[in-house]
Amino acid sequence: MQRVNNMMEIEEVNNHKALPLLSLNHVSLLCRLVSDSVRFYEHVLGFVPIKRPSFKFNGAWLSNYGIGIHLIENPSIDDLDTIVEPRLINPKDNHISFQFTDVGLVKRRLEDMGMKYVTAVVEDEVNRVDQVFFHDPDGYMIELCNYENIPILPLASCSLLSSFNKAAPASCGFMENVMMESLSMEMLNISF
Question: Which PANTHER family does UniProt cross-reference here (predicted)?
Fold first, then answer.
């Protein structure tokens, strides 16, 4: 480990290297009717249709917030799913989540659109996260939340974890202390 410009460099300590990913690019979803799904993602969630390559199947690409939604039309989608009646809105189901800033505004707009939704609140003595869950036209679960209220900390940074993680180890290790020192230095540099 070496110091560069008063900042700590963190050595890689694991024996394997993860793939060199940059970010989430897109989520691909099967849909019964592309036009209905495009309308939903455009008008409800604010995505913008973008040009897509000339595939030999009907679909659409949408983009916003730094990610894409790729819709692939499959009118027989119900044949692939054993559940053909509308699904209950279950926050523990597979879902895509987006950040929001105003839970009241989100709920009012969903109500204005006549959309069913379920809310949940996750909180401890320090943090509060509001969640709103609803379905797209094909039954995919969407979550809107304000998770930016929860600090993102490695599990091993145990002394700083809140009650959101009860399984934290009893003491912090060398790398966690280095990460926290580096973060503290960055915060000091920002405040001046």
Answer: OS04G0538900 PROTEIN, PTHR46142
From first to last of its 192 residues, what are the pLDDT tens digits of the chain? 444 454 545 444 455 788 998 999 999 999 999 999 999 999 999 999 999 999 999 999 999 999 999 999 998 876 655 444 567 898 888 999 999 989 999 999 999 999 999 999 988 888 889 999 999 999 999 999 998 777 777 776 655 444 444 444 444 455 555 555 555 555 454 443
Residue 70 is part of a domain; what is its CATH number? 3.10.180.10
* Tally: H helices and E strands in the chain: 4, 10
The verdict on 96 and 145 lying in the same domain is: yes
Please state, in angstroms and rounded to a whole number, the distance separating the CA atoms of residues 169 and 140: 36
In a domain, 6, yes or no: no
Strand 141-145 relative to strand 95-99: parallel, antiparallel, unpaired?
parallel
143 is catalytic: yes
162 occurs within a structural domain: yes
Residues 142, 93 within the same domain? yes
pTM here is: 0.69
